[in-house]
Amino acid sequence: MTKKKCIIRIIIFIILIIIVISTTSCINVHGYSDDYQGDYPELYSIAINSVLGARGYLNDGRGPRSSEITIMEEDSFGRKIFLYFEMKMISTYSLHISQTINDQYAYFYPDFNFISGPTDEFSEEAIEALKRKNDWDMEIDLSKCVKAEIVRRKGSGPLGSSQILPLYRKALGEDAHGNPLIVYFITDDYGRSMYLGYGLFSIGRHIVMMFNPDGSYDENKSYFVLPDLFNYQKELKQFKELNNWNQSLI
Asked: What is the DSSP letter of 174?
């Protein structure tokens, strides 16, 4: 990487930190006021159910507005590669592959349906690997898919701050914010929910937390520290499996 590119990435990172601080108030678990106004709600729905920290809107200091979605390519079976951007620290730019849609749901492969980075530049090798993992130009196989309801607003998390904060503070200890920065992620078919917690920016720690439907959790396996802001798909998949994500509660 050139010195110029390093400087640009540092500047972008600093700007993102300032925006997160200025636009995230206390604990953000109740959804957001701004609907997605763009042309691709089905792709928007995939993105907000895939990347950690997705708030469902873009805020560059001028107030909330629609996330940016750009379709890059389409295969012969209707899959699309699209770029998603909402100016955030984690997965700042993410490149996704959708499988198919109907009137109500968007279908995609779990865990490895996207790659992300600090800029919108992705190598040809990374894009080709993403295509292979998502069966690009092959028959659609719904049995390998998960689905997301097509929406224009990120949904509210099922839990309140009193249920989330004890685990947030336990996991981060002295790195926890006095004014907690927590963003709702997703809920499975059985009511388990996941949240992303931001640690102090000087430390740079981020945690992913999982709760049972009643807000309880297993202290031994209910959170993990994000290893990287852009490459965490493998760890997230392992975390889900460890906590029986999308499996019956009985």
From this structure: G
